[in-house]
Amino acid sequence: AHDPAAARDAVKDADRKHVFHSWSAQELIDPLAVAGAEGSYFWDYDGNRYLDFSSALVYTNIGYQHPKVTAAVQEQAARLCTVAPGFAVDVRSEAARLIAERTPGDLDKIFFTNAGAEAVENAVRMARLHTGRPKVLSTYRSYHGATSTAINLTGDARRFGNDTATAGVVHFWGPFAYRSPFYAATEAEECERALRHLEDTIVFEGPQSIAAVILETVGGAPGVLVPPAGYLPGVRELCDRHGIVLILDEVMVGFGRTGTWFAAEHWDVVPDLLCFAKGVTSGYVPLGGVAISPAIAETFARRPYPGGLTYSGHVLACAAAVATINVMAEEDIVGRSARTGAELLGPGLRALAERHPSVGEVRGLGTFWALELVRDAATREPLVPYNASGADNAPMAAFGAACRKGGLWPLLAGNRVHVAPPCNIEAPDVAKGLEILDEALSVADAHMR
Ligand code: PLP
């Protein structure tokens, strides 16, 4: 007979014995065994269902198990699983065409990778070769992936265990009005001072040594940092003035997350290189890539590009991308993301902030939001310190436990809860998630001074 408890124990036992998990002290973790998933929900072996406000790691933009995409992957698997990257093949051509059609401006050529970090690695390599310059500038509040170059470009604390290959990386401060590094009082002041700080950094590093500035269009892991109106156009202008390549990392925010196909559209900015991954296949099969400007593509028109991957443009992944993009277009999932943000999530989260003093700020757009949790509303002291663990992190751990107990899987980062459900989440599920957050925030309130 089918015994879910025995199945769960077998899964967990082999996991504990043989699976080495990311970012973890292996003996200090206790991973939940997941039995299945559909739409905005996943469930365990004990009958607990979780409303997924994290979209896995912010990638199931169309929810779990969309039948059109699972069918397309099955059909492709039966027809042709793989061919070498050097051949031209139907689904790869079509995936590249569909992506190029949607990326901003004249970004028209697609280099496919397996995921986000490799997209960043290759964008940086292209920028260095195109300019002949060594340095890359990135912000402290950023995450760009976990390979050697990408983790050192990363500004957040995940970089700390990896400070071995920092050559050529320079960090600067991006705008963040709520915790302004520039002591700015308004968004406009924050924008102006952040641009002046970047310009000073460029001048003092030496523009002739700088290949690229890389930015998350909207900072994801660092806290849903929506830039002030003039910031990205200002960075674009600085890059143009100094011959620096602008790389926008849209690994987390591309493919509908912010209510547009790509977040750069909100500010009408066209980068020279754009990194994508996650949402391109809703994560059903791993895929990432770099969209490339004509000028950079031209650099490698008659000179070989010195980079490549066995699985660049993997056929099964490209089939998933084609199906995902078509489903997003047919079901207006990008528009739904925008409307869910404007009509439900934004107002709903702001209403929670009115009721809960621990919510210091609500920010976001589309299906991409964060609540900044504080110990003290006046001083804005974070509910837990930067890079907290163990007892220091207890208030956030208690808040997370309350969410999960209510049936909501939250995405927690530092002193924040990020709200990133599937872009096609249904209205009743938004309401349900907000209700659970409402209860859990009382736990956060209780940890204030
Ligand atoms: N860039 C950004 C903005 C990300 O959010 C991530 C992952 O979360 C990455 C890059 C790295 O992507 P991957 O984990 O697929 O290598």
UniProtKB/TrEMBL annotation:
<comment type="similarity">
    <text>Belongs to the class-III pyridoxal-phosphate-dependent aminotransferase family.</text>
</comment>
<protein>
    <recommendedName>
        <fullName>Aspartate aminotransferase family protein</fullName>
    </recommendedName>
</protein>
<dbReference type="InterPro" id="IPR005814">
    <property type="entry name" value="Aminotrans_3"/>
</dbReference>
<dbReference type="GO" id="GO:0005829">
    <property type="term" value="C:cytosol"/>
</dbReference>
<dbReference type="GO" id="GO:0008483">
    <property type="term" value="F:transaminase activity"/>
</dbReference>
<dbReference type="InterPro" id="IPR015424">
    <property type="entry name" value="PyrdxlP-dep_Trfase"/>
</dbReference>
<dbReference type="InterPro" id="IPR015422">
    <property type="entry name" value="PyrdxlP-dep_Trfase_small"/>
</dbReference>
<dbReference type="InterPro" id="IPR015421">
    <property type="entry name" value="PyrdxlP-dep_Trfase_major"/>
</dbReference>
<dbReference type="Pfam" id="PF00202">
    <property type="entry name" value="Aminotran_3"/>
</dbReference>
<dbReference type="InterPro" id="IPR049704">
    <property type="entry name" value="Aminotrans_3_PPA_site"/>
</dbReference>
<keyword id="KW-0663">Pyridoxal phosphate</keyword>
<dbReference type="GO" id="GO:0030170">
    <property type="term" value="F:pyridoxal phosphate binding"/>
</dbReference>
